[in-house]
Each structure stands twice: as C-alpha cells, then as structure tokens.
Design brief:
There is one protein chain. Helices cover 31% and strands 32% of the residues. The chain has eleven helices and 22 strands. Strands 1, 2, 3, 4, 8 and 9 form a six-stranded mixed beta sheet that branches. Helix 5 crosses helix 7 (210-229). The longest helix has 25 residues, at 245-269. The chain is globular. 42% of the residues are buried. The model is unreliable at 397-406 (pLDDT under 50).
Length: 427
C-alpha cells in the first residue's frame, strides 16, 4: 500500500502511528484491530515475536522477553534490531514516501541516530526526527482557544512510561523551538512499582521470579489507571479491602511532586515563570493528582499520542486537521445507586461516517444501536460495568448535553458523548 507519510511515536510501552495517503486522508494505524502496538518484543530460536503476541508469549518464554527496547536504544546493539521489528510491524504493508519519528527533546545524538537506524533496518526510508514537545506544541494550533501565539511559550509536561521530560517550547511564526528542557526518572513504570508496593496484598503477592513480578506490575498499572478515572476499585484477592484513590495518591505524591519541581526548573532555566501555560502529555499525566500538584488549569491531552503524531505530521508539511480532536472540559462523575457514572464529551473534526467506521473496528465487543450508539454491558467480579458512546452532529450541541454556554468550534462537525459506569452487582 503506497502512502505519502508515515508518522510514528515509538514509545517505551506502546507505539502508535498515523498514515497519510496521496489523497490527504489521515488515519491511525491499526495492528490486529487496536490503534496501539505494545513496543515489547520476544526473540527465541524461532525468531522475533512483536506487540501483543510478544506479551502473550512472555507467559511461557519470559526469559526471552524484552518489554521496553526503547530504554536501550543507543546503549545496546540489540536494541536497534528490536526496535526495527516493532517499526516494521507498525508499518505493515505501507510503502511510505516519507517517514517521521518523534523523539524526546533531551535525547543525545547517539540515541536519535539509533532510532533512525532502526527505521532503516525495518526497510523504511531514512526518517525525519521531530522532538516530541515541539510536536505537542504544534498540535495546540489545532485546538481553538488553546493556540500558542507567535512569540509565546508553552511548557510541555510529558509523563510517559519510561520517564519524565519537561520542555519549554517557544513559537516563532510557524516554527517551534525548545529553549529549555529537564528530565526526571519518574515515569509510568516507576509509578507502577509504587502502586504495586502499596497494593501488594490486594493485587496478589508475586511468585519469586520475573514472570510473577511482571504480572504484579501489570495488575498495578491497571489499578493505577482505573483509579485515575474512579475513586475506588475492587481488589483482585478475596478478603482484601477496596483500593482507593487516596491511598494510591499517598504512594505516588513524592515522585509526582518531584516531576513538578523538575518542570519548574525548566521554566526557570528559560527565564519564565507562572504565566506560561502547561500542556500535559503521556498516559500517566492523566493521573488527577498531577493537575492538582501543578495548580491552575493545565491542558491535559486525552489522546496524547495521536496529538503528538498529528503535530509531527503538521510540522513535516502534512495536514492532519481531519484528526484534530478537542477533549472538552465537560467531564463529570456522579454517584448513583451505590456506584458511579462518568460522562465525557469530546468534539472532533471527524464526521459521523468516519467515526462509525472507527468504532466498528475498535469496539467489536459493543452492540451497535440505531441513533449512532454503541454500548457494552458486562458483569465482572460482582460488579455491573456499562460503557456507552453516542454521536451527535455538532449543530445540535444541546442534544449532547453540552448546554448553550459551550460553543462547538465551526470546524468540528461531531460531538461524542461517552458514559462509563460501575454499579454493585445483583445480590
């Protein structure tokens, strides 16, 4: 398949990509259905296994498992081969004319070159490299009311799986430049270990081997992400108490507070202070405690990886406006009937027809209903789970519950309402 652009954000835990065809149509890359490919690889006598297949195989051949090759790029000769396998898998049968890869702003030339070498080893054209915070700042140009003005600055706070990076980005016309950056070893993997220590009894004591520890960390990550969306979580082990957001935050606070100190040091190095807006990227940045530690109203990108790839495409000369999504700040959680309901509204430039196609691929476990709805109900560990997505034309914002005070930007033709709920199960 011939495409004009392939833009890849190769992450520590997962890799995502966008393709742009000659017709200008931009779409996320899907590997076996999901829009995100685990970056892990497994190599044994039979060869390489990548993505979710590698994660599953690790249950049997854990000694051959490499969960995060990105951490070794520029440091281990095998990491280039490992990364090449993931890049080849994410490219699939695409034959791109140009390839763009995003990289941390703080990476030295040796690590940048190692990632570029991996792309070439994967059979791709020599890539252009774009600093991730620069791409994130460029993406802000697609968000009405959030643009970085000419001469203005934004602090990009990136909390990914492998670590933390703060970068001050200044705009000069259509160009963006990192003027200061600082790093901290805290990342999602560190937060998972802290969560595992705090909730060890509830998550399950691991066997004394690497496989058992990996399972505990996987459980801890799921618990940490769930407690970013809700206040309590049922334990995996019978007899253990509820996992609570307050307990989790007590365990994570020192590490997350250190990232805020690092970010403020980057601002000071740039000669800037409190007036600079903060842009939060990386999956772990959605932890509610992060925004509270920062104070003010930082902008949290709910789809940070596609925001970064869309920004990189924009900087490289593509036009990703069709993918621009704005997560509205109308996200509320209600206590209902002994459980909770969280409602989120998102406006998107994608048309209803485009979203229909996307949801049919990404929500195979949901039932599709008349009236642009997908829903899923399931029982799990005595709880009733509910997930519902409804699409509305933006011309009818009242129907989406946005209210008359919330104006939908003209170029965003669709509003998505997403409801999630957990209730006690039947007695």
């Amino acid at each position: 398949m011939s495409v004009r652009w392939l833009v890849v954000d190769y992450g520590t835990a997962a890799t995502v990509a966008l393709v742009c065809g000659a017709d200008g149509v931009v779409a996320p890359v899907r590997v076996d259905g999901p829009e995100e490919l685990p970056s892990a690889v497994l190599v044994n006598a039979a060869g390489y296994v990548t993505g979710a297949d590698a994660v599953r195989r690790a249950r049997i051949d854990f000694d051959w498992f490499r969960p995060a090759p990105k951490l070794e790029l520029g440091r281990s000769p095998t990491a280039v081969r490992d990364a090449a396998q993931t890049l080849r898998r994410i490219a699939g049968d695409a034959r791109p004319e140009r390839v763009v890869l995003t990289v941390p702003a703080s990476w030295p030339e040796s690590r940048r070159q190692a990632l570029a070498d991996a792309a070439v080893a994967a059979g791709l054209p020599t890539p252009s490299l774009v600093a991730r915070p620069v791409a994130a700042a460029a993406y802000c140009a697609l968000l009405p009311g959030r643009e970085v003005p000419d001469g203005g600055a934004v602090l990009v706070y990136h909390l990914g799986a492998g670590g933390f990076e703060a970068a001050v980005v200044v705009r000069a016309g259509d160009a963006f430049e990192v003027v200061a950056a600082d790093t901290n070893p805290t990342g999602g993997l560190v937060l998972d270990r802290l969560a595992a220590d705090r909730f060890r009894e509830a998550l399950g004591e691991p066997a004394h081997d690497r496989r058992g520890w990996m399972l505990l960390l996987d459980n801890a990550r799921e618990a940490r992400e769930a407690l970013s969306r809700q206040e309590t979580l049922e334990p995996l082990n019978a007899g253990a108490g509820l996992l609570t957001r307050g307990e989790l935050e007590a365990a994570l606070r020192p590490a997350l507070a250190a990232t805020v100190v690092t970010a403020r040091s980057a601002l000071a190095a740039a000669g800037l202070g409190d007036g600079v807006p903060w842009l939060l990227t990386g999956r772990a940045a959605a932890t509610p405690l992060v925004a509270r530690l920062i104070g003010g109203e930082p902008l949290v990108l709910r789809h940070p990886r596609f925001a970064v790839t869309a920004g990189a495409l924009l900087l490289a000369g593509g036009e990703p406006a069709g993918l621009a999504e704005l997560m509205l700040d109308e996200q509320r959680t209600y206590a209902v009937g002994g459980g909770h309901v969280t409602t989120t509204w998102r406006a998107t430039a994608s048309t209803i027809e485009e979203l229909r196609r996307r949801y049919r691929l990404s929500l195979p476990d949901h039932a599709e209903h008349p009236g642009e709805r997908w829903s899923r109900r399931r029982d799990e560990r005595g709880l009733r789970h509910f997930h519902d997505i409804t699409l509305f034309p933006a011309a009818e914002p009242g129907a989406a519950g946005l209210g008359p005070a919330r104006r939908i930007p003209d170029h965003l033709p669709t509003v998505v309402r997403e409801d999630t709920a957990v209730f006690p199960g039947p007695n």
